[in-house]
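Demo today. Your pick:
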Amino acid sequence: MSDVASTALLIVTVVCVAANAFIVAADLARARFVLANSAEVGLWPEALPFLAALKGAGAVGLVVGLAGVAPLGLTAAVGLVLFYLCAVGAHVRASVFHNIGFPVLFLVLALSAVTYFTLVTA
């Protein structure tokens, strides 16, 4: 893989960390958009801290991976992929498509992180 592609994947992985840190903060703050989205897909508000913990653990795992423990970064990235696949599934199950782009975006970021860490650990 070229240096440009590796650098781009690294940048997207850092963006994945930042995006997940943002959404963790929004979940914990019970931001209006988070509560509205959760209600639309049938998620009870009491689940938000648990979901924030999962996303936060994924973000921390990515940071540890970027700091040199690439296998942990890969594991965290795979966990985030699974999380966001479930989020997309929740939108599809509830037929909430007007904002499905957000979990899809997070899924793409997580998939990019998987790609980055796969290349780093290879």
The helical segments are 3-28, 32-40, 48-66, 70-93, 101-121. Residues 3-121 form one domain.
